[in-house]
Write a structure and sequence with these properties.
By secondary structure, the chain is of the alpha/beta class. The protein has one domain: P-loop containing nucleotide triphosphate hydrolases (Rossmann fold). Helix content is 34%, strand content 25%. The chain is built from nine helices and twelve strands. Strand 9 and strand 10 form a beta hairpin. Helix 4 crosses helix 5. Bound molecules: adenosine-5'-triphosphate. The site of adenosine-5'-triphosphate (ATP) has 10 residues, from helix 1. This is ABC transporter ATP-binding protein. It comes from Sphingosinicella xenopeptidilytica. Part of the ABC transporter complex HmuTUV involved in hemin import. Responsible for energy coupling to the transport system. Keywords: ATP-binding, Nucleotide-binding, Translocase, Transport.
């Protein structure tokens, strides 16, 4: 399986055309301020929007795949935690098309076994986030496109999710996930792609992307011994 390679991607709310590639076995952090285009890019890569550019997944163009083939090869997790149907947690995970034993195994993986029979509308936001993550992980897709998979989670569960993403990469999946927690992205991603104003402004090793100059220019922040602070304007 070669990479997920997108070239010349143009969509409303992205500026110019974007190129991005994710290799199997890689965890790539998609970072950038609110409104910088992360969700728009993830949706484009998942085939959820139409526009210019080519997206090749392994050896096949995304637009040449049937919807079931896409779903098998690419798992997409939106940032929203809202679930409109009052379904049980295990039924939500089963929507991924896996059997009951895989549902149970994946709920255990995200620490939600005890909640399998609970209606998702009665779960806390972080609990619901873990069920929605289980739904995405259950199918063992080749590519995981995850919009803020650690949002709403406490620090322990944030680390658990990063470990799960690493495990997915170790089994050969390619992972592209957006994050606002730069400390986590830096520590746990092989590569970071930094967006600003609908463009990719840096793509490389975390240390090469999260530079003082990029942090100041894109986020208006700086790092010191106490953590993050607003940089001088
Ligand atoms: N349907 C729409 N109508 C108008 N503007 C839109 C629409 N969809 C997206 N945008 C704009 O496109 C830009 C990129 O949005 P996007 O959701 O991709 O950002 P993001 O980087 O994921 O942000 P966040 O970190 O806040 O989730 C934003 O300025 C947003 O307001």
């Amino acid at each position: 399986m070669s990479g997920l390679v997108a070239r010349g991607i143009a969509r409303p709310y992205l500026a110019g055309v974007l190129d991005i590639a994710v290799a199997p076995g890689e965890v790539v952090g998609l970072i950038g301020p609110n409104g910088s285009g992360k969700t728009t890019l993830l949706r484009a890569l998942a085939g959820l929007s139409v526009g210019e550019g080519s997206i090749v997944v392994g050896d096949k163009a995304l637009d040449a795949m049937t919807s079931s083939e896409r779903a098998r090869r690419i798992a997409y997790m939106p940032a929203g935690r809202r679930v409109d149907w009052p379904m049980r947690a295990d039924d939500i995970v089963a929507l991924s098309g896996v059997d009951a034993s895989r549902v149970a195994e994946t709920l255990a993986r995200v620490g939600m076994s005890a909640f399998a029979g609970r209606r998702v509308d009665t779960l806390s936001t972080g609990e619901r986030a873990r069920v929605l993550l289980a739904r995405v992980l259950a199918g063992r897709a080749d590519w995981l496109l995850l919009d803020e998979p650690t949002a709403n989670l406490d620090p322990g569960h944030e680390l658990d999710v990063l470990a799960m993403l690493r495990a997915e990469a170790t089994r050969g999946a390619g992972v592209l996930a957006s994050f606002h927690n730069l400390t986590l992205a830096e520590a746990h991603c092989d590569r970071c792609v930094l967006m600003a104003g609908g463009r990719i402004v840096a793509d490389g090793a975390p240390g090469a992307v999260l530079t003082e100059a990029n942090l100041a220019a894109v986020y208006g922040i700086a790092r010191d011994g106490a953590g993050w602070r607003r940089s001088a304007s």
